[in-house]
């Protein structure tokens, strides 16, 4: 069974890999044997993350890239392939969120969320998908959210983007199969440095613990098994799916 989940010899690209869930995803793939190409916009934080992965015994490289820049993606993907020989796994993790009621959301703020959370995964999947098809192997994992299956006030752009990402995933699965699988990993509320304010909100915590079957926040460790399933040969017959890892939140949330 361990061979099914092994990524030994694989090359994985992870966006938003300098911190938070992206860094933990990169660590998980490296520990499974992959060479992980870590992508982010901030060079200093990215290089620190890669140094940490290497210090832990993993194989990792850094690529500074603005994933909303189509021309930059067109140049970066062939360069990664030239340096590492191929791309076996793509994890579209990078994302942003803007909090305001829809009626108070400026068009530029709406576009910024959609550009990062939906258009960028499309651009990367298109570029990397062509390469994967030529090799007749690939795993694309788009990081969506429970906000891709439910709605929530004040995060309209994020909700719209994540719903769109799940739809894009299903279409890509239809177009890139049978040799390339495309799935979403859709986390619930996971403790990271990006949502400390929510973690400290007593009313929100009470709601979450009451309406989550597991009775708690998730942690990055709770996503590792699901990621490996979708990124490895263990998930070869899973495609076009949104795997929700939320402790039961969306099963009982009213």
From TrEMBL:
Name any one GO molecular function.
oxidoreductase activity, acting on the CH-OH group of donors, NAD or NADP as acceptor
Record-linked InterPro entries:
KR_dom (IPR057326), NAD(P)-bd_dom_sf (IPR036291), Sc_DH/Rdtase_CS (IPR020904), SDR_fam (IPR002347)
PROSITE patterns this protein is in?
Answer: ADH_SHORT
Q: Which domain of life is it from?
A: Bacteria
Q: Which Pfam families match?
A: adh_short_C2
Ketoreductase domain ranges (all copies)? 10-193
Q: Which family does the UniProt entry place this protein in?
A: Belongs to the short-chain dehydrogenases/reductases (SDR) family.
Q: What is this protein called?
A: SDR family oxidoreductase
Recite the lineage of the species: Bacteria, Pseudomonadati, Pseudomonadota, Alphaproteobacteria, Hyphomicrobiales
């Amino acid at each position: 069974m361990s061979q099914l989940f092994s990524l030994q010899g694989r090359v994985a690209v992870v966006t938003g890999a300098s911190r938070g869930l992206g860094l933990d995803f990169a660590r998980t793939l490296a520990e499974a044997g992959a060479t992980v190409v870590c992508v982010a916009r901030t060079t200093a934080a990215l290089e620190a993350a890669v140094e940490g992965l290497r210090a832990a015994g993993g194989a990792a490289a850094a690529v500074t890239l603005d994933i909303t820049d189509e021309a930059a993606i067109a140049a970066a993907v062939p360069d990664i392939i030239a340096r590492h020989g191929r791309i076996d796994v793509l994890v579209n993790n990078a994302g942003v969120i803007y909090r305001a009621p829809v009626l108070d959301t400026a068009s530029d703020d709406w576009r910024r969320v959609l550009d990062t959370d939906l258009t960028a995964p499309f651009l990367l999947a298109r570029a990397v998908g062509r390469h994967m098809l030529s090799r007749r192997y690939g795993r694309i994992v788009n990081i969506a959210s429970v906000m891709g299956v439910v709605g929530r006030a004040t995060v309209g752009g994020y909700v719209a983007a994540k719903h769109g990402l799940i739809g894009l995933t299903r279409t890509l699965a239809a177009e890139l199969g049978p040799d390339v699988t495309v799935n979403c990993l859709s986390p619930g509320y996971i403790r990271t440095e990006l949502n400390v304010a929510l973690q400290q909100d007593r009313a929100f915590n009470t709601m979450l613990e009451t309406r989550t079957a597991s009775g708690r926040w998730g942690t990055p460790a709770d996503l590792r098994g699901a990621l490996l399933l979708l990124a490895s040969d263990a998930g070869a017959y899973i495609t076009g799916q949104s795997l929700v890892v939320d402790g039961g939140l969306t099963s009982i949330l009213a």
